[in-house]
Structure formats: structure tokens, C-alpha cells
Amino acid sequence: xxxxxxxxxxxxxxxxxxxxxxxxxxxxxxxxxxxxxxxxxxxxxxxxxxxxxxxxxxxxxxxxxxxxxxxxxxxxxxxxxxxxxxxxxxxxxxxxxxxxxxxxxxxxxxxxxxxxxxxxxxxxxxxxxxxxxxxxxxxxxxxxxxxxxxxxxxxxxxxxxxxxxxxxxxxxxxxxxxxxxxxxxxxxxxxxxxxxxxxxxxxxxxxxxxxxxxxxxxxxxxxxxxxxxxxxxxxxxxxxxxxxxxxxxxxxxxxxxxxxxxxxxxxxxxxxxxxxxxxxxxxxxxxxxxxxxxxxxxxxxxxxxxxxxxxxxxxxxxxxxxxxxxxxxxxxxxxxxxxxxxxxxxxxxxxxxxxxxxxxxxxxxxxxxxxxxxxxxxxxxxxxxxxxxxxxxxxxxxxxxxxxxxxxxxxxxxxxxxxxxxx
Amino acid sequence: xxxxxxxxxxxxxxxxxxxxxxxxxxxxxxxxxxxxxxxxxxxxxxxxxxxxxxxxxxxxxxxxxxxxxxxxxxxxxxxxxxxxxxxxxxxxxxxxxxxxxxxxxxxxxxxxxxxxxxxxxxxxxxxxxxxxxxxxxxxxxxxxxxxxxxxxxxxxxxxxxxxxxxxxxxxxxxxxxxxxxxxxxxxxxxxxxxxxxxxxxxxxxxxxxxxxxxxxxxxxxxxxxxxxxxxxxxxxxxxxxxxxxxxxxxxxxxxxxxxxxxxxxxxxxxxxxxxxxxxxxxxxxxxx
Lengths: 423, 288
Description:
The complex is a heterodimer. Chain A is built from 14 helices and 16 strands. By secondary structure, chain A is of the alpha/beta class. Chain A has a seven-stranded mixed β-sheet, with helices on both faces. Chain A is globular and about 65 Å long. Chain B is an all-alpha fold. The chains are: A alpha/beta, B mainly alpha. The A-B interface holds A 42-44, 47, 86-88, 195, 221-224, 226-229, 231-233, 235, 252-253, 255-256, 259-260, 263-265, 275-276, 279, 281-282, 284-287, 289 and B 2, 6, 9-10, 13, 106, 111-116, 118, 122-124, 130-133, 136, 202, 205-207, 209, 211-212, 214-215, 247, 250-251, 254-256, 258-259.
């Protein structure tokens, strides 16, 4: 009895002391700034964005956090799977995800997606309703996103995009093809695109721009998602003596196309926007049959390259953290979005949406893929072919198992090579 | 020549993917909506055997086919047997199993397009000036062998004859001492094994991605409906109709209408012959 009483006597003050200490610590720590990340995590553009965001958050927190009006606050990330890249999943799923992040997870900012254009466009109204600043980093390639901001600035001013879009990519391809034309005398292009909105638009834009630039476009084939045989189209391209095989596809089956191209030894250089060929694992997956393919990774830094002093630092940090090189579209832009947000919050001195919008409009940060600044009317990141002037792309060619940056010229680390059967 | 060659290859590929589904329905009248999921699963099992366990490729293929057949048999024994005869429940249950498998694989890490199986023979050769890769020829040859082997199995083996008897008249077969449930289990295992066989032949052409499971299921259903549910001969004829329709669409119209043409073929077939080309289900007049 006496022994038990003694224990109680000591235990009560100990507990009181513990509670006091912990509450003291809790009061001293500043609440985190919550980043909500709506992403299609089962797909490359979702999981690489998640990794990019988390890496940036970990680095920033390890360095002390974000200085908000003199107080250091850490970032916290809440990721939700929007499933918007899965076939048959309605846009409403992604919208529910965004709303859940805002209302349940109490996200202060949205970074990342939604990833599919239709979902991201629909989410703009939600962001406007809740006055949540969002930086779109992955997936969405439609120019409609920033045009919508420009057309109704007051309503959609909370929406920013730090990655590229079809319009810019098409111009980059045209400039790159101009170099190839000059170097090899090529003149005929055969276009193959996937039957989805961004790919059809991309193909149409390219067809028009190429024709305007004096190229002969032999044909444009539109393939349903899931196509597993491209023999007829490839044979047609061979018969029409195409020099360039221009592709715009995000389906995994595009790797079949490249295997067939390699097996047929088609005398047309393949290039374009090919999701399956972005990842470092593409080489192993195709047993090297995708060699010489040229791919637009949308933003610089999505493959290791010396674009700015930060690019290789990022690539090494990514590899150390996740065990592989930056994977593809969505990686570097998602990483940079967090740093850009940090910069804006620190300049604003608050996390108030209105103040952060103004700060983001005036951001000027030398990042992983060049100078990051936004157009003040459309909130689209300003592109350039020079990293000192704006955000640059990364057009790479698969050469001996590596993704070698071949465009833009100021960041190129290798020359464009032709397959032996084209020489 | 181009249309003929690619049409035949495309048709055989389609019939190979649909054969397992048709076989199960033909024998046990059970619609296996997990067919596409089993197709992807078998590819993933082979991939795991080769890349994780370091097994020989051929051994990996054998393990993949046998394991998928066992999964199919277990599916029947543990779940389908309990609801057999309740058609809606059968559809819902098999579809749910398929979804669970596909989403489980996705959750388990089967994401992206870097999971691939090696081709049996790399490279291509020319027939009449048309380049065809060896793997597709392998698919073509294997398809013909499988159809022939299946025909012989059904005609000359005791199990095959029993399966045929059940497919023709289940009650009469039971009166002759054939265990219907046991044979349905065999048909599930065989159908699942066939889907695995198709997968190991076709998947080396591209990557193992979970979405393929949905495509395989859609095409299997399309082929079965056009050919007549449960009719093996019908499935082969339907595969040729869809296969050639797709190639003709690609050559003379546009590739983007391939799926439309396939679906149109289903609608036209259902309008002209609701039970499918070789279907033996009762016509509307008999059913009303």
C-alpha cells in the first residue's frame, strides 16, 4: 500500500512536468505551411512530381524552413491521388481530391496537378472559390490554361504554371528541326500522334507550322490509345520517303512503335513528345532499340545536364534521395515550384493569397532550368532558349544508354546522331 | 499483300487474346471478366521470375502459365463455385476480382512502361518487300499451333470430350457421370492458362502495363459477342472480321476509327444476328 502510494507521488509530478515541457515545445514551434499536391500518383507525371516536391520540401526544412515575416516555418506536404490519368476516371474525382486537400487537409497552397488538362481546367474554379494559390507543374500542356487566366485575371489570378505548354514546345521543335534541315538536308516529315486531345492538337499545330516553314508533311496518322501494331503506318512512312518521324504520344505502347521502327530500320529519324521514352528505364526496357530517338522533356533538368549551376546539383540530390536520375516531365518543375513558392512567401512576408500572388508575379529566380519568372497577365512561366533569359526546355537524344541534351544550343551537351542505316 | 499479311497477324493476335475468355464461357457458361487481369498478371509473374528471381526465361514462362492457371482454378473453387448459376453475381464477382488484381498490381508497383519481356527473336525479315518482326511471326505460328492443339485436345482426350459434352448439354453430361463443377474448374484453369500463353507471346512486343488488362477484356468481349458467346470457331471468325476491319480502316480511312469500326461490327452483328455469328443462344422469337 505504502509502496503504491509512493509511486503515485512521484508519477504525478513527472507527468505534469512532461506535459508542461511538451506544450512549451509545441508553443515554440511554428505551424507548418501545408502544400497540397493533387497528383495521379500511379503515372510518371504524378510520381515524379511527388518526388520532386518532397525533395525540395526536405531540403528547405533541413535548411531551417521558410522565413514568414521573421518566423521560420517548415513546409508539410499532403499528397492525394487524383487518378485523373486513368482511363474512365471522371474529372469529378480530381476535383474532389483538390477540394479534400483544401478543406480536410487544410492546404495553404496547391502545387503539382491535377495532371490531365480537363481536370486542371475544371479545378481553376475551385482554386478561385477558395482563393488558393496554385502552381501547376506537370501533365497539363494545353495553352487554354494560361489563356483562361489572361481572359479573366481577377477570377483566376491564383493559378500559375511553371512548366511549358504545346505552343512553346511546337516552336522549340520547329527551331530544332530547322537545325536538322540545315545539317542533313531533310525535308519530309511523317506525323504519328495518339488519339487524345493534347496529342491531336500538338500534331495539328506541328503540321501547320512545318508546312509554313517549307517542310513537306507526308501524312498525319492518329492512333487510338492502346494500339499495339504500327507496321502499316511505318511502312507508309517508308514508302513516302519520310526523313523525320514526328511522334506525340503518352501511351506506354509507343515503345512498340520504336521497336518496330528499329526492327524495320526505317530511314526516318524519330522525335517528338514520347512519354514512354522519358524515363531512365526506357533503354533497358527497349533493350537499346530506342537509340537515336529524340524526346522533348518539356523542362530542362528532367534529365541530367549542365543548364545552370543548380541543374546538376538537383540531379545528384534527386538520384541520392530516390535512387535514380530525374525521371521526366514534372520532376524539375515540381521541385522548382516549391522553391519559387518559398521565395514568394518570404518576399510577401505572409501566406496570404493576395500578397503571395503579387510576390509570384514579381519572382525572378535562377533555377534548375533557367530564369524563373511569370508573365504578369497569364501567370505562365516565361520560356526562352537561353537559361539566362527564361525557362528552357530539354530536348534529349538517346545515345548509348544515356539521355544526351541536344537542344537548345546554349545547353546542348552533344550533337544529334543519325542511326547507321540513315547514313 | 500488306493488308493480307498484317490482317492475318492482327486477327491471330486478337483470337489468341480472346480464346481463354471464349473457352471458359463455352464450357461453363461463366463470363470471366477477370480475363484481362489474369493476362497482365501472368506477364508480371514471368517478369518477376526473370528479373527478381533470376530464373531462365523459358522456365519463367512455364511458371507464369502454370501459376496463372492455378490462380484461375482457385478463383473458381473459392469464389465462383459459391455463386454459380446467378449470372449477375458471376459477372460482378469476376469483374471485381479483375479490378482487385489490376489495382493491386498497380499498388504493388507495376507502374510506368519499363516492365518488359524480351522478344524470343529480335529483328525482322521481309516478305514481298514488307518488313515483319520475328516476334509477330512467332505469335502467328504459335496461334495456329494452339488452335490445332486445342482442337485435338477436345476431340481426342477424355477431359476434352467431357468438356465438349458439358458445353453441348450440361444436364445430359451430368447424367453420364461427368462432374460439371470439376470440369468447370478445369475450364477456368485452362482458360486462365490460355490467357497467360497469349500474354507471354504478345507482351514482348511492348510493355507490361496494367491498362492492357482493360483493353484485352474489351476485345475479348467484342470477339465473343460477334462470334457468338462460347463458340470457339465463332471467336476465330470474329477475330478475323475485327482484325481485317482494323487494318482496312487504317489503310483506307484513318487509324483513329479502328475502335469505332470494332464497336460498329458488334452493333451490326447484334442487329442482324443477336446471338452472334455462330451463337447457339435462343433467338428473340424463342425467348419471348
